Amino acid sequence: MELFTLAMVIAFIAYTVKSRDQIRRIALLGSHLQRFQIETLMENLTQGYLRALGESDSERKAQVWSMLTTAEATLCEQINRFVLEFAKVDESESRVSKFPLAIPHADKLFPHATFDLRKALSIHARGITNAVNNQRNQSPRDKAFTVSAELFLLQHTCHWFCRSKTVASARMLSGHQTSYAKLIESVAPETRQAYCQLTAS
Questions:
Q1: What is the model's pTM?
Q2: Residues with Cβ within 8 Å of residue 130, at least 6 apart in sequence
């Protein structure tokens, strides 16, 4: 009975510490994101892509694609500004645990098993900008697919920083019906190589 009580106390303490750590991370990331409209712009752009892809009239489709270029440029500008702002965060505050599940203060206890969120965000900003600028000379459909994948991977990384890799992957699967593996496969090769090298366990 005493052993059970001790286990319960330890579990409660671990949960409390983990929750406080996650609240701190959410507040840190949120304090930078709140200056921008990135989430709203992302949603509007991805919805715009779906609308363009579902348009049957070729002239109307071309008009929708043309209108989306402004939204793409605005989103790119905001993401790049956000990344520059977050780059000022101290490295000790920007480490992300590579462990699948959240472990209290894992970034401090196991620094070798972490990556720097600032570097990950830089990879995302570059990947999104390149995709929007269509450096791979893709068709509008394929470009939209790549830009969406780059945006969703950015979203995954932010959830990973705030919670854990497992929670981030679960949210991606429930929110966008896309597995983490499929997401990695769908971004540009340059993004995939840099991101996987940074986050490799």
A1: 0.90
A2: 136, 188, 190
